[in-house]
């Protein structure tokens, strides 16, 4: 969404004869990928995710869930490393920066730059993985707010219930020598994935349906707290997160040009 806003700002700036903002490409140029030999992977993703109930005439309830034994953050890192290990020489992340407890995007970026400056050997590039943000209601059926990070979202539309699982992961490729951003893209599921979100043009969206009228019902009964869900539903949500991470990350890395 930040890229869309920047495109709009660029158009307005050009129309008014003003300097346009610089846009980070959504894909890594082949010549840039070819120059990368050593790569550090830094992830600020944590194990927290949201259990949300919102929508038309619904009282909004959002709960933060932390299932440490699910190891979602670890899975994101491991799937990414496995996907890229054959294409690059993976080097350790800068000390003290990998998986900080929490930070804003600007704080995380500044910490990364400071850590790189202290390294005796700087990698050719850094892949920074963060919780992403989507702000278009179409991204999750009838959503009324921004979607951030990972979560499960329930809403209703024309008296029908929709429950969506979303995994907003933002990937940024940064030049390890200069700190220049080379590419910025978001994790999405392949278009062919069952019950994946509708495409926005040619760009698939980062969520799948758990409940869809007359077709699928994973969450049999919505509860105010995820801890009150039956074991079968809890296991199904965990499996859906795993499936999303396992399928979306390699697909997205290849789509962006980083995975060769």
Automatic annotation (TrEMBL):
Secretion signal span: 1-28
Keywords noted in UniProt: Signal
Stored PROSITE patterns: PROKAR_LIPOPROTEIN (PS51257)
Keyword Signal assigned: yes
Protein name: Lipoprotein
Species of provenance: Magnetospirillum sulfuroxidans
């Amino acid at each position: 969404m930040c890229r869309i806003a920047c495109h709009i700002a660029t158009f307005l700036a050009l129309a008014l004869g003003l300097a346009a903002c610089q846009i980070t490409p959504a894909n890594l140029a082949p010549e840039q990928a070819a120059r990368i030999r050593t790569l550090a992977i830094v992830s600020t993703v944590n194990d927290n995710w949201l259990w949300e109930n919102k929508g038309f005439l619904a009282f909004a309830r959002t709960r933060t869930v932390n299932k440490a034994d699910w190891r979602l953050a670890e899975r994101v890192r491991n799937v990414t490393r496995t996907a890229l290990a054959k294409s690059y020489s993976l080097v350790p992340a800068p000390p003290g920066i990998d998986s900080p407890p929490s930070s804003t995007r600007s704080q995380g970026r500044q910490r990364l730059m400071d850590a790189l400056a202290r390294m005796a050997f700087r990698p050719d590039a850094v892949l920074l993985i963060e919780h992403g943000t989507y702000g278009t209601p179409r991204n999750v059926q009838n959503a009324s707010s921004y979607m951030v990070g990972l979560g499960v979202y329930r809403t209703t539309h024309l008296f029908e219930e929709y429950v969506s699982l979303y995994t907003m992961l933002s990937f940024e490729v940064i030049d390890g020598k200069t700190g220049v951003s080379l590419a910025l893209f978001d994790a999405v599921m392949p278009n062919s994935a069952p019950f994946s979100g509708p495409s926005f043009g040619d760009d698939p969206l980062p969520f799948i349906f758990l409940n869809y009228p007359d077709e699928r019902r994973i969450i049999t009964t919505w509860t105010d707290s995820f801890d009150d869900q039956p074991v079968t539903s809890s296991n199904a949500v965990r499996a859906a997160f795993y499936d999303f991470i396992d399928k979306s990350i390699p697909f997205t890395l290849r789509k962006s040009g980083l995975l060769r």
